[in-house]
Write a structure and sequence with these properties.
This protein is mostly beta strands. The protein has 1 helix and 8 strands, in the order αββββββββ. Helices cover 6% and strands 36% of the residues. The protein has a 5-stranded antiparallel β-sheet. A 3-stranded antiparallel β-sheet has the order 2-1-3, with helices on one face. It binds zinc ion. The site of zinc ion has 8 residues, from loops.
Length: 137
C-alpha cells in the first residue's frame, strides 16, 4: 500500500501575524510600517526606532536579496523527501526586515549570497500560502 506523503509543518498563525497570512492567501506581500517614522517590520507591536505603537500592515515590494543561506542535504522531516538538497535562506527585504524562507525555481547549488530575489506564493492548502523567493528578473 502506498502511503500518502506526510504534510510539511505549517506556520503558526498568531494574532500578530494573522493579517500577513490573510494577505499571503491573496498572494499579496505585506509588512508592518510605522506610521510615525516609516520603518518596516515583520511584525512588531511597537517601532524599534521611534517607539511609536502606530503600526499598519501595508503592501510591500516583495523584493529583496539573499542575505545568507544553508543547503539542506539531510532529510529531517519526511515531507521533504525527494526535495533534497534544498535551501533555507534569510532574505533581506528591500524595505529592511529580514525573513526566513526558501529560494525556489533554481537548483540549491545556484543560490548565492547577494542574489536579487522576488516573492512568489505557494498555495500549501486552502488556508495557507507560503511566501518563497525566486531569482528576480
Ligand atoms: Zn517608528
Amino acid at each position: 500500500m502506498v502511503q500518502a506523503k506526510p504534510k510539511k509543518p505549517l506556520p503558526l498563525i498568531e494574532p500578530e501575524t494573522q493579517a500577513f497570512w490573510e494577505a499571503a492567501k491573496r498572494h499579496e506581500f505585506t509588512l508592518q510600517k510605522c506610521q510615525n517614522c516609516g520603518a518596516y517590520y515583520f511584525p512588531a507591536t511597537d517601532c524599534n526606532k521611534c517607539s511609536s505603537p502606530k503600526m499598519e500592515w501595508v503592501q510591500a515590494s516583495g523584493k529583496g536579496k539573499v542575505f545568507t543561506f544553508i543547503t539542506m542535504h539531510q532529510l529531517y522531516h519526511p515531507s521533504f523527501e525527494g526535495e533534497i538538497p534544498y535551501n533555507v535562506s534569510i532574505i533581506e527585504l528591500a524595505e529592511g526586515p529580514f525573513m526566513m524562507s526558501n529560494v525556489v525555481d533554481i537548483p540549491a547549488d545556484d543560490v548565492k549570497i547577494g542574489m536579487p530575489v522576488e516573492v512568489v506564493f505557494e498555495d500549501v492548502n486552502d488556508e495557507v500560502a507560503m511566501p518563497r523567493f525566486k531569482p528576480a528578473k
